[in-house]
User: Fold LabJ from Latilactobacillus sakei.
Amino acid sequence: MIRQGYTKYIKRVIVMKKWGFLLSGGFLVAIIVGILLINQRPNQARQQANRVHDSAPTFYLHGYGGSGRSSDSMIAAAEERGRATKVLTAIVSRTGQ
Assistant:
C-alpha cells in the first residue's frame, strides 16, 4: 500500500517537472521574441525619419517681432542637410497685399 502511494507521488512529480520545463521554455521563447520585436521598431522609425517627402512644400511663418533674417540659420541648416533647396520670401503688407 505504501509502495502504490509512493509511485503515484513519483509520477505526479515527474509530470509537474515536465510541465515546469514546458512553461519555462515557453516563457523564455516569449521573452526572446519580445526583445526581437522591440529592437526592430526603432529601426523602422529611423528609416521612415530619413525619408524626404518632397511632394508638399513647408511654409514657415515667423512670430510677432520676427523678421526674414530670424530664420536664416534654420534655413541654412536645412539646406546643408539636403532638406531644403529653395527659399521664397514673401512680404505682405498690412492690407494683405
